[in-house]
Design goal:
By secondary structure, this protein is mainly beta. The protein is built from one helix and seven strands, in the order E-E-E-E-H-E-E-E. The chain has one domain (6-70). Strands 4-3-2-5-6 form a five-stranded antiparallel sheet. A two-stranded antiparallel sheet has the order 1-7.
């Protein structure tokens, strides 16, 4: 079974951001709560992402990955 992406509950964006060691990391979150890093640095950055405090890449929403919704795309 293929995993779908989760989206922001406010605007529906599938892009999320977080800061790790003063570096912004952009990523997606799958329905299995796996992170798919889209910024340079790639998978090595994924292990540093804490899904309890993420930020939407398009709107002011921030929170826990458990609050995300299944993407409509």
């Amino acid at each position: 079974m293929e995993s779908e992406l989760l989206a922001c509950p406010e605007c529906g964006s599938e892009i999320f951001t977080t800061m790790v060691a003063e570096q912004k990391i952009d990523f997606h979150v799958s329905t299995h709560y796996l992170t798919l890093v889209t910024s340079k640095g790639g998978s090595s950055d994924a292990r540093h992402i804490h899904l309890n405090n993420i930020h939407c890449g398009l709107c002011p929403w921030s929170g826990n990955a458990r609050d995300l919704v299944i993407s409509g795309n």
